[in-house]
Amino acid sequence: MKTILGRELPAYIEGYGEVTPFQGAFSDAEIKTRKAVKLTSVNPTDRKVLDNLEQVFDKLNIKDGMTISFHHHLRNGDHVLNRVVEGLAKRGIKDLTVAASSIFPIHEPLVEYMEKGVVTGLVANYISGPVAEAISKGKLKKPAIMQTHGGRARAIESGDLQIDVAFIAAPTADTYGNINGVYGDAACGTLGYAISDAEYADITVAITDHLVPFPACPIQISQVFVDYVVQVESIGDPAGIVSGTTKITKDPVALIIARRAAEVIKASGLVKDGMSFQTGAGGTSLAVAAELKDIMLREGVVGSFASGGVTGYLVEMLEQGLFKTLFDVQCFDLKAIDSYRNNETHQAMSASMYGNPHTKGAVVNCLDIMILGATEIDTQFNVNVTTGSNGMIMGGSGGHSDTAAGSKLSIVVTNLIKSRVPMIRNEITTITTPGESIDVVVTERGIAVNPRRMDLIEKLRMTNLPLVTIDELKIMAEKITGVPKAVQLLEKIVAVVEYRDGSVIDVVRAVD
Amino acid sequence: MEKLRRSMLFMPGNNPGMLQDAAILGADSIILDLEDAVSLTEKDSARILVRDAIKTIDYSQVEVVVRVNPLDTEFGPQDVDMIARVKPDTLLIPKADEEEIKLVDTMLDKIEKEEGYLAGSIKIIALIETAIGLATVYDVIKASKRVVGVLLGGEDLTSDLGVSRTREGEEIFYARNKVATACRALKVDSIDTPFTDTNDYEGLAKDTAKAKSLGLTGKSSINPRQIEIIHSVFAPTEAELKHALRVLEVMKEAEKEGKGVCSLDGKMIDAPIIKRATRTVEQGAKLGLIRDEGGAT
């Protein structure tokens, strides 16, 4: 069985099930349904606050084989996932599936629970650190399922991903289950990745270290979705919550790439009043924002919105009047958290509103310009952000496939050569995002436009930008690095890469 | 058309990553450094690395200059012997004086003959960074036909002079004048000393503007982030270009009509004004700021 991109997939994968091969970014046009949610009504005399996690576990009746979910707003400072899994392991629970929107190095204790069979399944949009390595080495019993941010919301809402209990790390919760992310020691701002979990899980538990009297204000997740509230000493380490990659790079090569990307954006004609823009938090991506900011200021352009994970840099652009609003699924730094708390034009969005393809229109559909990264790109413009050049899992789509599909102009910015490895290949280790969604690849040595975008090629030909074909880019890199040998991977499938619509775009195989 | 040397970027010769990317950082010339940037224990490996980089990497977009070690050290002659054989565009000779330039010239004659390169094809830029070098700069340039420019090394020069180096740079005022004048007289490029505070962009712009105002034709740089500012200072402004184009136009009209003298906006246009306008237009053309037909873009 083959995807439309020519990837050979098995029809059935043990531990995953039947495979629907990827057939194109917008191939899935049937009527969809949202699942019905089971719930137990809470009556006037019921009390939601429990004394400790043990009491929560007593109440929940968690059984072997259940799926428990977590959000990743506390990023590499998260204490909640490890605490919950540890508590359940002590009770002898086995065969859990952990559905976390992302997994970070701090979740290393999961590796031991994977080895012991406590955790046998993992569903996430991004996996880095020791857990990623352990999966690549085949330590997880079932293949991990790697989704996109929008795809996860879709899977939860459709029932494809059935959550038995959602454990929601809550920087602030009141005694009746209302939650916000803007106050408390572990304040993280918006809670976009937790919304579908809270709304669609059979049971939702708020775990907080800042329990306030009813009602909390503001309310980002409502009491109507929350069964229990429990207070713990700490839900997260603020130092790990704030991402380390929120500064503009000083690397001269990255700055050249950023400048070129901004020139491509300008040449595309999209820099005009009402424009919208998204970029990641990496140094190069932020440098593109800085270049774009200069262009917008010079031309007196006022954009409509900037979106995504929000950094202080986007907040500054909002404050300078360059955008009318921010759509924020996740705050990357303290400045973004402050801004979300205090500025009403800084709006939250759920992962579903952000990128779920099976809604009546996600924010990514309204996006003009998207700046993306890559670990590998093939000559058909397919992009890998899931595995590294050694075949090991080191990330995942996150919002990559969602924004690439939705935006009018998606630009991958990357060094042509990273640590002696050429970025453009005939074939990449893993396809995360299909080439049909990628418009331009900008490197320090040349710019390649997807031949599907003849309109853009025409526009860029009018500029002095170094326009080349993607094959020429590949040759340029290989002239310096030589052609790298393909990585030798084992047969065993350790992860299934789901496209945002739930079809399988690729699989990841074990490394030796 | 001769290549411009508005900016010359120093890159350490012992850093493979930087050597790999040196050509794409926007500088007109790159100076692959075997001297100050390389410690004594790495001299041999850096020499081999730079040789292999020149052989392997496509530097066709830029002028490749290699700063060798002084000829009176054990490394200098080895540097020249190994590097010249892979034919860089230019060698930058530190602590240059007349004798040293003549010595390098002789060595290059021999190597070019042995390797079958066109005689005189490897050029020399003299790094003036001693009192004696400065005092005799005219003769240093005349010492070899290969000399295409002088680079003023402010740090070593002020150290030799026993004076402090300052942000304002008054202490190298004379040196800049002297180098600019000698270079103009002998029609070679004069490249200013680098501005060493890589985070002070305002200071860099002022320092570059000062060098330009004293007649220097380019500036060396120690960080790629400085290139853009240097180029913006050395590029003719749009107003300068427009004015220069008008001067030449008026002059052509006058020639057609057989007039000996002409004027623009009430000011007489004489030979020095025409010469300056011609130079500005030529530079604009080199930078792609003017179309061939002569209209500013």
Key features of this structure:
heterodimer; A: 512 residues; alpha/beta; Glutaconate Coenzyme A-transferase; 2 domains; ten-stranded mixed beta sheet; nine-stranded mixed beta sheet; B: 297 residues; TIM Barrel; eight-stranded parallel barrel; two-stranded antiparallel ribbon; 12 helices; disordered C terminus
**Strand count of chain A:** 29
CA-CA gap between termini of chain A: 26 Å
**CATH homologous superfamily title of the largest domain in chain A:** Glutaconate Coenzyme A-transferase
Enter the CATH topology name of the largest domain in chain A. Glutaconate Coenzyme A-transferase
Rg of chain B, nearest Å: 20 Å
Order of helices and strands of chain B: EHEHEHEHEHHEHHEHEHHEEH
Give the oligomer, counting copies of the same chain as homo and different chains as hetero: heterodimer
- Name the helicity range of chain A: 25-40%
CATH class of the largest domain in chain A: Alpha Beta
